[in-house]
Amino acid sequence: MNGKQQEEGRGSHYPGSLLWALLAMIVLAGCSTTPAVQSGEEPKEPIFSASRLLSSDVKSPTDIHDPLEGFNRGMYEFNYGFDRYIFLPVVAGYQRVTPEVAQQGVHNFFNNLLDLKTLINQLFQLKGGPALKTFSRMGWNTTLGLLGVIDVASSFDIPRYQEDFGQTLGHYGVGPGPYLVLPLLGPSNLRDGTGLVVDSMIFSAIDPLRLDGHIQRQIVYYGLNAIDQRAHIDFRYHQTGSLFEYDLIRMLYQAKRELEIEK
Amino acid sequence: MVSASFLCLFLSYPAGRVVTFSRIGRVRKLSAGLLLLGIWLLPGPLWAYDYPIEDPYAATIIGTPEPLRARLPEKIPLETRTLPSPEGRSIPDVVSYNADLNYSVALQPGRAPLIFIIAGTGGLHNTGSNLLLMRAFYQAGFHAVGLTSPSHPEFVIAASSTSVPGQMYNDAEDLYRVMQAIRSDLGKGVKISSFSVTGYSLGAANAAFIGKLDTRQHAFDFRRILLINPPYSLYNSMSKLDRMLNNIPGGLDNFNTFFQKLLQRVSTAYKRSDSVEFNEQLIYAAFKDDPPTGEQLAAIIGMAFRLMSANMIITADVMTDFGLIKPSNVTLSKLTAVEPYFQVALRLNFTDYYHEFFYPFYKRRDPKLTRESLAELSSLEAIGDYLRTAENVGMVGNQDDIILLRGEIDKLKALFGERARIYPRGGHLGNMAQHETLGYIVAWFKP
């Protein structure tokens, strides 16, 4: 059996049924995150139980505020199904038919647009120097770089910062709030999710590509952007094989955002 | 092996922001940064063997500096293929995403020798060190096949006959079966002139036991076998890796503080620097003035190992309903909050696993077993007669390998005699990408 056939899998692995099963799971299961005991018995005491090994006053970095865990875990599995059966095959198709030079051009183009978001948030955070650098980066890339397709700024050693409204909120002392797994977008939290909405509202208000009222342009823009971004992320769901992958990602996401906000 | 799994974990992090707000480069560099916390390049004297890092813990974490790495092709025709798990194998829903065993392969266009490469502890078929060796062997004209370690959850779930890894004979039989399945999966179109096998760390020990098995079963009649940085005794090495966690001041109860301090340190360095991105230069600069101590480096390695072993242990527990961490009559779903089990699993040391799970589990299958005899089975000495005389089996090691106890490197030398090549520095696998070391590894298999 080769890799292509792998995607078809067996019985329950058909993409359609899997997605529906996941959706149904999310809706039906609500927030039931407690382990299910088989047939009405009490859970048997394991050899190493939490009550035996852990004292309540010891903190663990894995312990993240996650009141919506049932929903979040369901969404994590939904994202896994979507990624594996729809998103990654589409990305692979895109990479097959697109010459590498063109892929790079597309990537640069979207990065140049993302720099706009960075610039705005640098201004929100009153980071004048970095904002100036981002401005000149955009200036060079938009003109000499043919609307961002060529990243000339990097060859001039102009650094590429990344800021977003979630970081802006964090910069002004807003805490992360509850952890949140967003549909298709993945790990986030209340603060960063809010930031995401604000950033996209700002983008829509400026509308540099004149997408407003052009459904076809919107489809091309959002579709291609999504594919391009995914093509540049190595992560594969469940490749760690860890039963605790959700918990690990949750911990690393929070740690990473703390570092980004402090910069 | 430790750095590899740690690396794998952190590099596999960039989950979110799949659609709009990706920050790929930075996340990866940041992740690399987290794990390169311990960067500390000591300017050592350059010998003919020019691997420069003298501290074996630093070497284990950092690996080989770029200028000293072997030159390898950037791109090889790498594919991931899937072996469906056998019919009727019972796989709990919560781990069903790992129901099939994958392997990596890079095939030559024509007839060529084939080499199997077995990953180290907790390593997947396409883990960094596997890919490094695959590139090197592909360049040298081999069909290269990367195998997942029997200690990785995917193998435990999809392929292990007992789902309780660490029993070397068992693991060898499982791997041997998988290798035969791969050969038939590759099909007749792939022309193979001979078979060889290699592995690093735990994978090296696996390769040795497979070699021994093959002398009886002859499915492959391996032309050559090489053990790269093997443990002499798996039991001793696991125990030693465990003890590295004792370097956390105040013990595991203070892990949170230790972890936050490390993050703080990275954060401070990050803020102070002019660099926007996380990269090795940044970490190098940040830690040059204030290098982490050997204890801190050891604690980081111990933690990476513990994370790997926590994954392995919970998977084995779920597959067997043994009742070690998860109550035996409880079924987990994909929505179950398992974080309390995670905390418990992170607390278990190797001795806990060994005495409360591994030994009782195998004792049930073989009542004559004793704790001592089971531990002895995990040592290369168990197949010492074979290793001492097998002219086609060689070994590469480092004098300062951190997974070996004092004196064990000499026992390895005694086992392999002229067929052992020992380098003065490199820690555990730190020098595997170095041109001289990798050159020797590949040359061992050249006709």
List keywords for this structure.
heterodimer, A: 263 residues, mainly alpha, two-stranded antiparallel ribbon, 3 strands, 4% strand, disordered N terminus, B: 447 residues, alpha/beta, Rossmann fold, eight-stranded mixed β-sheet, 9 strands
Number of domains of chain B: 1
Chain-averaged pLDDT of chain B: 84
Helix content of chain A: 55-70%
Which spans of chain A have pLDDT < 50 for at least 5 consecutive residues? 1-15
Biggest β-sheet of chain B: count, sense, barrel?
8 strands, mixed
Largest sheet of chain A: 2 strands, antiparallel
So what's the overall shape of chain B?
A: globular
| Number of continuous helical runs of chain B | 17
Query: Mean pLDDT score of chain A, rounded?
Result: 83
What does this structure look like?
The complex is a heterodimer of chains A (263) and B (447). Helices cover 59% and strands 4% of the residues of chain A. Chain A is mainly α and 263 residues long. Chain A has a domain at 99-262. A two-stranded antiparallel ribbon of chain A has the order 2-3. In chain A, strand 2 (179-182) and strand 3 form a beta hairpin. The radius of gyration of chain A is 22 Å and the shape is globular. Chain B is α/β, with parallel strands linked by helices. Chain B has a single domain, classed as Rossmann fold, CATH 3.40.50. Chain B has 17 helices and nine strands. Residues 1-47 of chain B have low confidence and may be disordered. The chains are: A mainly alpha (263), B alpha/beta (447). The interface between A and B is large, with 91 and 89 residues. Strand 1 (36-37) of chain A pairs antiparallel with strand 7 (330-331) of chain B, so a sheet runs across the interface.
